[in-house]
Structures are given as structure tokens and as C-alpha cells.
Amino acid sequence: MGREQFEVIVEQYKRCYNEWKHYDTLLWQIPFSTSVATRTVLTLVYRWVEEMIVRKILMLNLILFVLLMMVLAIKIRLFQIARTSFLKEVERNYKIKHLPVETKEALAYLERERQNNCNGVFGKIVFRIYSIRAFHLQLIMYSVLIGTLIYLIIFT
User: Fold this and answer.
1) How far is it, in rounded angstroms, from Cα 100 to Cα 106?
2) Domain total of the chain
3) Fewer CB within a 10 Å sphere, N or C end of the chain?
4) SS3 of 37, please?
């Protein structure tokens, strides 16, 4: 492999890593923004809108918004997984030590540390919390938001 080809791969790796970081940032910003927007609209709807049909239409639109944000988060996660695969492939091909970016990999990486320092009950609980994937918590949050909106549409 020539120097020029190596430099292209390094640039691809850098770009891919920067995109991965950008997607990671979005995966934290989108749920927070969605939650804030939902609560703001609900506050406005219940404070200023008195006609029930208008309230229900606004809440149906809010459900659509939350669903779209959920799909967006899933798609961003897909792109992040693709970037992770590319980074791993480059690291494997060039025998670079891979730093874990996925929960399973990080847990395996930290298993030795847990055995050395987390032998008590508290340590085991903390390690179990580590094993929860943040993205799954986000999907639960979206589902709860949608469920809450459906409840409000039906029972208010």
C-alpha cells in the first residue's frame, strides 16, 4: 500500500470517527429536545386551548412528532453502528487496539476491573446498571411519551 492510499484511509477514519461522535451527540440531544418540546406543547394546550377537539388534534400531532423523533433516533443509531463497524474494520486491518464503544464490548473490557474492585453487593448493582443500553432507555422514553399522550387523548 502506498503512502497516498494510507493517507486516504487515515482521513476516512478521522471523518468516520467525527461522524460517530456527532451521531452520539444527536442521540442524547434528540430525546431531551423531544421531551422538552412535548411538555411545552402539553402545557400550552392545557393552559390556553379550551376546545376539546382542538386539544385532541394537537395531541395527535404531538404523537406524530414523537414517533418521527423516535424513527430519527433509530436511523441515527443505525448510522452510528455502521460507523462503528468501519472503525473496527480499519483497526483490525492495521492491528490497532480497539477501544470499546458498544455496551457489550465495554462490559467485557471492564470485567477484569469489576472482579478486582466490585466484589460487594453495591459493586454488582453498579455493574448491572452499566449493562443497560442508553439507546434502549431512549426507546422506552419515547414509548412512555406516546402512551401518556394516548392516555390524555382518551381520558381528558
Assistant:
1) 5
2) 1
3) N
4) helix
